[in-house]
Design goal:
The chain is mainly β. It is about 10% helix and about 40% strand. The chain contains 3 helices and 13 strands, in the order E-E-E-E-E-H-E-E-E-E-E-E-E-H-E-H. The protein has a 7-stranded antiparallel β-sheet with strand order 10-9-13-7-8-12-11. It has a 6-stranded antiparallel barrel with strand order 1-2-5-4-3-6.
């Protein structure tokens, strides 16, 4: 269980593709100090499992942090943007919440419901306004002032119209997450609010 409060950005430093399977190595910088094999980590909103841990590297390809390997199977590659990552891609990192942690965002499972696309980006002073398209199966869960996880980031929905919705982003969110660099046409992982899904059902 996650909250959608991103710890910071990691960087993809290696990828090993096999048939319908992918290994991704992420330089986690100093964001995860005591990782363990088998632990869950949300990588841009997709809950993945740590399968290998490499010691910090001083290579120019890394930031000197721990390099964690994650494995993604066919289902994950089909339903998330994980298959689109390349070496050098930045990813949002969040570790699971612990009992007693403050719930700063909303309940996020790391089970991506679908992939959306940035359709508009507008900057007004220090405010940035992003509009995303929504897959048809998620439209009923996109409600005004409700919650949604975009690439794992807990955000408040504004002005949902048909198959689109918008969010307003603070400079800090842009600095700490992948949304700072997202351009029109780029795709994002979307997870609808779990509590709303439980009430409305998945039909």
């Amino acid at each position: 269980m996650f909250t959608g409060i991103i710890k910071g950005l990691g960087e993809v430093v290696a990828i090993n593709d096999r048939e319908n399977f992918r290994e991704i190595v992420v330089d986690a910088k100093d964001l995860i100090t005591k990782p363990v094999i088998g632990a869950s980590v949300a990588i841009s909103g997709a809950c993945l499992t740590v399968t290998k841990i490499q010691a910090p590297s001083n290579s120019p390809m890394t930031g000197g942090g721990l390099c964690l390997t994650f494995e993604a199977m066919e289902e994950t590659l089909k339903k998330t943007t994980t298959g689109e990552l390349v070496v050098g891609s930045l990813v949002n990192i969040e570790t699971p919440m612990m009992v007693g942690d403050e719930l700063g965002g909303h309940f996020v499972l790391g089970h991506v419901d679908g992939v959306g696309e940035v359709v508009e980006r507008v900057t007004e002073g220090e405010n940035t306004h992003l509009t995303f398209s929504v897959p048809a199966n998620l439209v009923k869960y996109i409600v005004d002032k409700g919650s949604v996880a975009v690439d794992g980031i807990s955000l408040t929905i504004c002005d949902p119209i048909e198959d689109k919705f918008s969010v307003w982003l603070l400079p800090l969110t842009l600095q700490l997450t992948t949304l700072g660099a997202k351009k029109v046409g780029e795709r994002v992982n979307l997870e609808a609010d779990y509590l709303l899904k439980a009430v409305l059902g998945r039909a």
